Amino acid sequence: MRGDSTMSSATITTELAAGQAALAEDDRATAGIVYAYTASAVFWLLVGSAYGTLAACKLVWPDLLPFEWLSFGRIRPIHTASILLGWLSVGLTGIAYLVVYRTARRALFSNGLARAGLWLLNLALFAGLVLLCHKFHLWLLRMRRTQCGHR
Question: What pTM did the predictor assign?
Answer without folding.
Answer: 0.72
